[in-house]
Write a structure and sequence with these properties.
This protein is an alpha/beta fold and 283 residues long. It is 41% helix and 23% strand. Helix 5 packs antiparallel against helix 6.
């Protein structure tokens, strides 16, 4: 078996994996003031936030190119690959996953699986890394798919947003609710529910929101072992504060702080902090 992994630029991956020979990453464009940007090519995450703040209207994103994915699959078959695993931004956020299913039948020379990740960012990156490592160790495609599905089924993410206007634009809150929330300093906790982002709870302050996240993590850590991330949208000091709260609470296991990409920050807004956790399979 020769396996290729394809993902998209909403993923978070450590730099040492970005040039992996069996990894392909589809671009998700970001449109700001009529200009199209691709993070990592003509835009850095440090440049993104000032551009978003100064934009006349909130940035928008589009789906990756289906034609590019089609070309990659064709070239993979020519290059001797036999199997392909595609892990893309959750179908609850983007229509891309639904729109590419026909490609499985278009490339019968390859064994292709496009499971719905139902997530993004570092949890999706962890699935990608795990699949690459399993392939390198000689695991079968079926075993890799089962392990990835185990991670998908057990992954959870909770998000504390700072700017409610981004949620209004994304259809998660009404204008009236956002206005009232801003006036009352309400910090809604969002979460991934079957791949879509929904309101989990509404709390009055960020301090209470972090306290609620601590309780969620404490409960989950008693159920299984997790790889955990704190993910921030230009809010590293808040992320570090939350990690210290975790340490002080006695939370066990590694907790990495990683940035959201511009694609996700476009929809969550600057200042958002999330916690994501994926179960670690024992074998």
């Amino acid at each position: 078996m020769k396996l290729a992994i394809i993902t998209d630029s909403s993923v978070y991956l450590p730099s040492e994996f970005l040039d992996h020979p069996d990894l392909y990453i589809l671009d998700i464009p970001i449109m700001i003031n009529g200009e199209t940007y691709v993070e990592g090519k003509n835009l850095t995450i440090e440049e993104f936030y000032p551009k978003m703040r100064q934009a006349a209207s909130l940035p928008t994103t589009s789906q990756p190119s289906i034609a590019e994915l089609d070309d990659i699959l064709t070239n993979l078959a020519i290059g001797g690959y036999t199997h392909v695993l595609g892990l893309f931004l959750s179908s609850g956020i983007s229509g891309f996953w639904q729109n590419i299913q026909f490609l499985i039948d278009e490339h019968k020379e390859l064994t292709i699986a496009f499971p719905d990740s139902k997530i993004t960012s570092s949890p999706m990156g962890y699935m990608v890394i795990s699949a690459l490592r399993m392939a390198e160790s000689g695991r079968s495609f079926e075993d890799i798919l089962a392990s990835v599905q185990f991670m998908i089924d057990g992954t959870q993410a909770y998000i504390v947003v700072d700017d409610l206007n981004h949620l209004v634009k994304g259809g998660r809150l009404s204008n009236g609710a956002a206005l009232l929330g801003n006036l009352l300093s309400i910090k809604p906790i969002m979460y991934f529910n079957d791949g879509g982002i929904e309101v989990f709870e509404k709390v009055r302050t960020e301090k209470k929101a972090f306290k609620r996240l601590l309780a969620i993590l404490d409960h989950q850590s008693q159920q299984a072992n997790y790889q955990t991330w704190i993910i921030e949208a230009n809010a590293k000091s808040k992320a570090e504060h939350f990690r210290q709260l975790l340490v002080d609470s006695g939370y066990q296991g590694p907790v990495d702080i990683v940035p959201f990409c511009g694609v996700i920050s476009t929809h969550l807004g600057e200042g958002a902090v999330a916690v994501g956790f994926t179960p670690i399979r024992s074998s």
